[in-house]
Design goal:
single chain, 83 residues, alpha+beta, three-stranded antiparallel sheet, two-stranded antiparallel ribbon, 2 helices, 29% helix, 28% strand, binds zinc ion
Length: 83
Amino acid sequence: MRRWCARHANLALVDVEELREPGEMLRILCECGDRHCTEWLAIRAEDFTDIRAEPNQYAVAQTHTDGLRVMRQTLDYAVVLQP
Ligand SMILES: [Zn+2]
């Protein structure tokens, strides 16, 4: 599943980040289900921590929410719930 791959890549990306400071912006891969998607999202480190604290929540590009339940929109990305 592309979404799990993206999440896996993002977690690896975040885990290698050291010396992270509050408010620091991360660049993560869009976690929509499209395996051809290569969109990068800007997200605050603590926001991504909140999103990944919920196993069914994903960060996707704002225009990549087809078929997904949108929990909230920000200027840079949308938080969706996978059914
Ligand atoms: Zn996408």
